[in-house]
Design goal:
This protein has helices spanning 11-23, 34-43, 60-70, 85-93, 106-123, 154-165, 173-180, 189-202, and strands at 3-7, 27-31, 48-51, 76-80, 98-101, 128-131, 134-137, 142-145, 148-151, 171-172, 209-214, 218-223. It has 224 residues and is an alpha/beta fold. It has two domains: 3-123, Response regulator (Rossmann fold, 3-Layer(aba) Sandwich), CATH 3.40.50; 128-223, Winged helix-like DNA-binding domain superfamily/Winged helix DNA-binding domain (Arc Repressor Mutant, subunit A, Orthogonal Bundle), CATH 1.10.10.10. It has a five-stranded parallel beta sheet with strand order 2-1-3-4-5, sandwiched between helices. Helix 2 (34-43) packs parallel to helix 3. The longest helix is centred in the middle third of the chain and has 18 residues, at 106-123. The chain starts with a strand and ends with a strand. Residues 126-223 form the OmpR/PhoB-type domain. Residues 3-117 form the Response regulatory domain. This is Response regulator transcription factor. Keywords: DNA-binding, Phosphoprotein, Two-component regulatory system.
Amino acid sequence: MIDVLYIEDEMSLALIVADSLEAHGFRVSHKGNGRDAVIAFKHKKPDIVVLDVMMPLMDGFTVAQEIRKVDISTPILFLTAMTQTEDVVKGFHLGANDYVRKPFKIEELIVRIEALTKKVGTAQALKQYAIGNYVLDTVKSTLCFNDVQEKLSFREVELLRRLFEHQDEVVPREEIIRAYWNDDTYFTGRSLDVFISRIRKYLAKDERIKITNIRSIGYMLTID
């Protein structure tokens, strides 16, 4: 069963959409404002977030931005009457995966939700990565070496996974910052260097693993 966090302040519409989704086998948690939605997301991560843009207390763009600070994989689908091209572009830049304009047919929404959750489910099928003599567990947020586990933060896990998935390739600094922090004024290059240094220490027991700083460009993970 797919868990949907649905955020809509127009209660009559929310009731109709929630009932329709539940009738088609979805489990729906509805919130009427953005602030409660962010709290609900952090308390129990859903399979997908469906949200309006114009909401009280915190608008949908801000909700998406807050979610992407702690999670980069859960699909976000905007369901809104805001149809200007710049609004659509802004939504995608903030981490949205899809954009459905009101008015809409419930059948279209269901197809979009199923497509997004299926895609993420396939992408996340691999939960553990063998990195040299280490095992990175992205579910438990641990890095294991000879049965000794190191607990990693969310950003450390995602940064190490990204470097490993692009092994022997340079991952640009700007790409890392945009992917995990959205705003390069919040997360400076110097702070990124600190994170990289921390990950190097975690991996120090396997001398074959190296993370090289390509000056002014990015980082590259190699395993000899």
